[in-house]
# Entry
Amino acid sequence: MLFEKLSIFCGNAHPALASAICDHLGMPLGRADVFEFSNENIFVRILDHVRQHDVFIVQPTSSPVQRSIMELLIMIDALKRASAGRITAVVPYFGYARTDKKDQPRVPITARLIADLITVAGANRVLTMDLHAGQIQGFFSIPVDELTALYTLSRYFIDKQLRNPVVVAADEGIVKRARNFADRLEVPLAIVEKRRTGEKVQVMNVIGDVAGKQAIIIDDEVDTAGSLVKGTNAILQSGASEVYAAITHGVLSGPAIERLSASPLKELVITDTIPLPPQKRIPILTSLSVAPLIAETIRRIHVGEPVGELYDKYK
# Structure
C-alpha cells in the first residue's frame, strides 16, 4: 500500500511500535538520527526528504519520560524547519496525564504544560490513546484524535469465553469506560470504591455483586500496581472466583513486577502503547498490539476519511 507524501518517523521511545505501524501500512519507517550527546543535549537530524509531506511522529512519552518528551519536541521542530506540510504527534501514551488539575495549593497542571509545548513546537494535530482524563483534549489548541483500546481488549475477553464474568471499574473515575466494556461483553458492572491520600491508596469497598464470578478490572493505566493488587484482594475477599485485569497502558514502574508476581491476579492484559522490556514479561502478563488501530487511523487522517467511523466494524 503506497501513499503519496506520507512519512512516519519515531524517536527512541518505541521504535518497535512505529515499525509495526509501518508494516501494516506497507511502507518504510522514515530515517532519522536521534541521539544524546555526552552533555545530555539531544540531537535530531531528519535523513529523508519531507517537504510538504504529511508527517507522523510515533513517540509515547514513557520512560525515560523527560527524554521522550524532549525527543518529540525537537523532532517536531526539525520537521517543521524541513518544511513538512503537516505534522501529527502520535503519542499513544501521554505522560503527565495524571497532573490534569490543580487539586492542592501551589501545584502545576503539567498535562496542560506538555500540551502547550507540543503545540508551540509546531505540531498541527495530536493522535493519542485512552487519556487519563478526557478534558486533556481541551488543553490543546490543535485537533486531537483520542483512540481507545476498549475494542481490542474487550475482543480478547469475548474470545476467552469466561464462564461467569463481571466487569469491575478500578475506581469511580473509570466507571464510564468500564460500563462500555461491560456492555461489549453483555455482563454486569461493579465498582471498587477507594480513597487516595497522596500516593497511598485505601480500598474502601466493592460495590456490586462479584461473588462466584470471574472479575475483570478495568483501568486506563497500571503504574506501580499497588492499587491493582489491593483491588484484586478486595474483589477476592468479596467472593470472586478469579480476577483478571484489562488495562490500556502498562507503565509497570518501581515494584510493579514484584507485586504482580506475588499477587493472586490471574492475568493482566495490557497493550503495547508502552514498550515492554524482557525483564517485565512475567507469565500472568499478556500484551496486545494497537499497531493495526493506529495504522488505520493514520491512513484515514492522511486520505481525509472520518476517524469516528473507525470502530464501526466492531459494533
